[in-house]
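During the second year of the project, the team shifted from modelling isolated chains to modelling whole assemblies. The rationale, set out in the original proposal, was that interfaces cannot be judged from single-chain predictions alone. As a representative example for this report, we include one of the complexes processed in the last quarter. Its constituent sequences, exactly as entered into the pipeline, are reproduced here:
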Amino acid sequence: MTGDDLDKAQSGETVALSLDEVFALSRSVLLAAGLTAEQANPVARVITEGQRDECHSHGLFRLPGCVQTINHPRFNRAAVPVVESTTAAVTRVDADFGFSLPALEAAMPRFVEKARAIGISVLAINNCFHFSALWPEIERLTAQGLVAIAMTPSHSWVAPAGGTKGALGTNPLAFGWPRMGADGQPRDPYVFDFATSAIARGDISLHKMAGKPLKEGWAIDAEGNPTTDAAAALDGAMLTFGGHKGSALSTMIELLAGPLIADMTSLESMEFDDGGKAAPCHGELLIAFDPTILGGGSRDNQASSERLFGAITDQGARLPSLRRYEARARSLAHGVTIPRHLYEQILALPRAG
Amino acid sequence: MTGDDLDKAQSGETVALSLDEVFALSRSVLLAAGLTAEQANPVARVITEGQRDECHSHGLFRLPGCVQTINHPRFNRAAVPVVESTTAAVTRVDADFGFSLPALEAAMPRFVEKARAIGISVLAINNCFHFSALWPEIERLTAQGLVAIAMTPSHSWVAPAGGTKGALGTNPLAFGWPRMGADGQPRDPYVFDFATSAIARGDISLHKMAGKPLKEGWAIDAEGNPTTDAAAALDGAMLTFGGHKGSALSTMIELLAGPLIADMTSLESMEFDDGGKAAPCHGELLIAFDPTILGGGSRDNQASSERLFGAITDQGARLPSLRRYEARARSLAHGVTIPRHLYEQILALPRAG
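Output from the structure prediction step:
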C-alpha cells in the first residue's frame, strides 16, 4: 500500500477486503449474471489475482465490464469448452463463445503434457471473450518449470506506424521464464506482459476524465494527426509503442493469434462486437517450451539466466513484475483495499446467494 | 550502413556487378580464408542475397568481417554441423564453431518436415558464429508455406531500460508470414527483421566517422548518462527501442536463444570473443508453424490476413520488407553496384582460384 492509498484508507475512501472476500464477491456477481459455475470460477480467480497483485485495472474494477460482456447477445453463458488434441504438439480448444479462462483451464493439462513430452507445445484458444491479463496464465506455466509465451489480438483501436487510423489491436505479449533460488526452490519467475500499443486504452479514458493531456506519441486524432487531447484520441486511434518495430510486432501478434489459428483479427473482432462494447472476442495463442529438452541437459541454464538477471539488477535496472510480486506479498499478508465507490458500484450489481 | 551513407562515403563512384559475380567473389574470398566449400557456399549465398536486396550492411560490406571472424582462434574453418533429431518437434544442430548458415542448411529439411507433420517445430542452432540477417532464412521457410520466427543474442552492447551499461545484445527478432496472390500463386511474404536495440551498432560508428550527433534515446555514455555523442556512446552502451517494453523483449530473446537452448547469452558471447572482434558466437532459435494444421483447415487464413494487410496499406502505411522487394526486382534485372573503395578493399583480400 502506498502512502496515498494509506491516506485514503484512513479517510474512509477505501474498503478493506480479504482475498477470499474478493473471490466470493466476484463469483457471486458472475453467477447472478447467468454464468455457470464452470465459467464463473476461473474468471473470479483471475480477478482475485489481479486485485492481489494491485493490477487494479485487472482486479474488481473489471467486474462491471465482465457483466456487460456476459450480457452481449453473442456471449454464451453456458459455454462448454471443447478440447481437441490436434497433434503431438498442438492442442486446440473451442471456448464456445464463453470466457477464455475456462477454455484455458480445460486445455491446460494436455498443453503442459505435450511440452514436457516433446519440448515445445502450442495451445490455440478459439472463439473466446477475453478481458484478462496474460501474466496469470504465464505464471501457471512457469510454476510447472516451463518457459511460456502468450498473445492475443483485441479491437482495432491502434494505427500502424505511418498510418492514420485503427487497424491493429492493443495486442498484448507476455513471456515467462521459471527461476530457481540458490536453495533449489522455485522463486518468482521472470515475467512480462505488455500491450504493444503505446498506452492502455483505459488510460486514455482516465486522462479524458481528469482533463489531462496525453503524452506525445500515444495517439492520433480522427484525421490522423498527432494529438495530446484525450477526447480527440478516443475518436482517432492509439499508436503502437516503439514506432515501426512495435507496429511490426503488433502485426505479428494479429497474425499468430488470429489467422494462423483460424480466428479473428482485431478488425474482425470489433465488427463481431457490433457496438456492444463487450470484451473482445477472438483467439489466443500460447507456446510452452520445456528447457530440460531444448537444452539437451548439457548445461545449467539457470546459472546463465541468473547471471543475466544479476547484470540487469546490479546496475539498478528493475526486472518486470517486481512491483506485482511486492504487491502480492502485501496482499497475502494484509488483504487488499479498493475504492469505496468501486465497492458500492459492485454491491449495486445483482449477486447470487 | 544505408545506401545513402555508402554513396556519400565514396562520392558516387561505384562498380557494377552481376549477382553471379557477387557470389563468385564472396566464395573465392571465403575459400582463400580457409573455409571448406561446405562452409563457404551458404555464406556466399546469403551475402549475395543481402547485396541483391540492397541491405548493404549485410552484403559484400560484410566480407572483410567474415574473414576477420574466420581468423578468430576459436573459429573452426572445417566445421561440420551435426544434426540431432531430439524429439518429434525439436531439432538441434551443433554448428561446430563454424558459421550459423551451414548448420541451418543441414538441419532445415528435418526442421521443416516436423512442422509439416505436427504443426509446430523448433530448431536450436548451437555454437555458431553469426553475422547474417535473419530474413533470408525466414524467407526459406515462408517459401514452403510455413509461418516462421527467428532470433539470436549478440554481444552485450545494449543497456537494459533504467540501466547504465551493456547487459543485452542487439538481439534481432524476425518473423515471416507466407502470402498468396488472388491467382493462387505465392507472392512476396510479410517479413520483418529488426534489432531490438534502438539503432544498429554500425550506425553509431558511421555517425562518429561523419561527426554527426546521435538522436536522443539511442545511447548512453560510460557513466550511464544520455548522450548524443557517438564516441561517448561507443564507450558507453546503446539503448533498446521502445523503452522498458523493448528491453523486456530483448531479454526474452537472450533467454530463448541462449539459456533455453543451452547456449551463451550476449554477455557470455562477448567474453568468449576475448577482444577478437569476430562475429558473435552463440545460439539461434527458430520456430516454424504450419497454418494448415494450426488453423484446422476450417477457415481461409489468407483472406483474413490479406484483409489486415489491406487495412494497413490502404491508409498509406507500408509493410516491412517492401523496400527490399523493390531492390530485389531491380537487382535481378540489372545487377548491383557497390562503392569502388569497397570493391578495392575486397580485391585486396586473398582469393582462391
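Chain B has two domains: 1-71+335-353, 81-197+240-320. Chain B is about 40% helix and 20% strand.
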